[in-house]
Amino acid sequence: MQELFLSSTVANEDLQRALRILQGYCGMKPVTFLRRRLIWEGPRARTGLKGVDQGIYKRQPLLREPHLWKGLHEQLVRQSYIITLLYDVDRDQFGQSEKMEVQDDEDSAKDEPAINFDQLPGSLRWTDLPDPAGGRPVSSRLIVNIENERGLCTILHTMNHRLNQEMIQESHRFVLGNVVFDFSRYLQLPPSETEPVSSIRIHLPAYDSLVPFDSENKWVLTASVLVFNGSNPDHIQKGIDELMTVKTDFEGCFDFQALERLVFDTRVKI
């Protein structure tokens, strides 16, 4: 599957105005969501890459999208990449342990059951280095999205991937036809006194304690189109035309650009 996209940024103080503009343009209210983003780094090797462990088909015979796993395997045996796992989270899940302590129920806070991400449905996202521009006015890259799957952390462990980082993604989404508009910002979790950096956090801190990765707290605005048959030039051109219409419609409002492709490089550095 091919993703065509254009990127822009919006200052935090301009976000509400930008949301109103997109609401009028798309004729819908934004879909707002929070996600935990678990960043997994592939093996630091150039050769001998195993890709997707073929044993998962026996251990997890109910994998929802076997053809997508096959496509992912074909990419990972040629190059080591960073892979992202996404899990939806509610705002009220933040700061639960602090709330328990305030209620003088420290034992309950300590005994709070650990989150087992393998039991939760999540999404796996792999993206390739975008293609060289070659005169194309939009960014274009291969992607694999495997959604609503369980056992993803264990699968990545069997593929010799290691957890590198966790962050929170806050997003507002609009859809118009084939075009998806996403306003997103990425938030860092403050250091934990009890949980190591290299582990998935059991207790989420208070939401107000999260720190934007961007020092200016800007939002990334992406307009994207998915092309399921990326080998069909007519389908690609249709997606490009739709994005160029968006770019034209928002001239003077949002500065949509095809950014330098290395900005989106997910290859593991050896």
Automatic annotation (TrEMBL):
Recorded GO CC terms: core mediator complex; mediator complex
Keywords assigned: Activator, Nucleus, Transcription, Transcription regulation
InterPro entries hit by this protein: Ets_dom, Mediator_Med18
Annotated GO MF terms: DNA-binding transcription factor activity; sequence-specific DNA binding; transcription coregulator activity
Compartment(s) of residence: Nucleus
GO biological process entries: regulation of transcription by RNA polymerase II; termination of RNA polymerase II transcription
Function: Component of the Mediator complex, a coactivator involved in the regulated transcription of nearly all RNA polymerase II-dependent genes. Mediator functions as a bridge to convey information from gene-specific regulatory proteins to the basal RNA polymerase II transcription machinery. Mediator is recruited to promoters by direct interactions with regulatory proteins and serves as a scaffold for the assembly of a functional preinitiation complex with RNA polymerase II and the general transcription factors.
Similarity comment: family membership: Belongs to the Mediator complex subunit 18 family.
Protein name: Mediator of RNA polymerase II transcription subunit 18
